[in-house]
Amino acid sequence: MSSITSAPEEFLTAVARLVAGKTETRAQFEAEPAAYRWIFLREGEDTWIHVLELSDGNDHDAGGTQVWSSQLGINQLARAAIRCFDEVAQTHGEGDYRGKWGEHFPRTELEALRRLWRAYQHPQDP
Fold first, then answer.
1. How many CB atoms lie within 10 A of CB 13?
2. Omega into 33 within 30° of 0, i.e. cis?
3. Whole-prediction pTM value?
4. Which of 1, 27, 44, 113 has most Cβ atoms within 10 angstroms of its Cβ?
5. Domain ranges of the chain
6. Which pLDDT tens digit goes with each residue over 11-66?
7. What CA–CA distance (Å, rounded) separates 47 from 69?
8. Measured between alpha carbons, how far is residue 96 from residues 1, 10, 86, 89, 126 in Å?
9. Does the CA dihedral 83-114-85-74 come out positive or negative?
10. Among the CATH numbers 2.115.10, 3.30.2450, 3.40.30, 3.40.50, which is that of 7-120?
């Protein structure tokens, strides 16, 4: 059995914060002793994503090496995150997810992102 800490929850929460209008947010995946830090920057409808590899998860961003970056629309990013987690749930099932990775499937965070994304796509008229 492997453990994935709270990285999936952090990732989904970071994307949800962007959808909700936050301009900068982060998530971190621990790879002990190294870490991968996702930095999300939003300007208008665009999102810039930078992934840094750090030798220690407590290191400052400046101590990391950028291993990937991309630009996506906020809608594309949210849709991709939701689809990926839906696929994991469908492929493995939530019970097997816990058995395989030692943590509960991040259903609460996924559904929070889904609600925000739907509201973002279809804002109600005043």
1. 18
2. yes
3. 0.92
4. 113
5. 7-120
6. 999 999 999 999 999 999 998 889 999 999 999 999 999 999 999 999 999 999 99
7. 11
8. 11, 21, 14, 9, 44
9. positive
10. 3.30.2450
Which residues, at least 6 apart from 37, have a Cβ–Cβ distance to it below 8 Å? 26, 27, 28, 29, 51, 52, 54, 57, 61, 64
Q: Which residue has tokens 């809608």?
A: 75
Contact (CB, 8 A) for 36 and 29 = yes
Residue carrying structure tokens 């995150």: 81
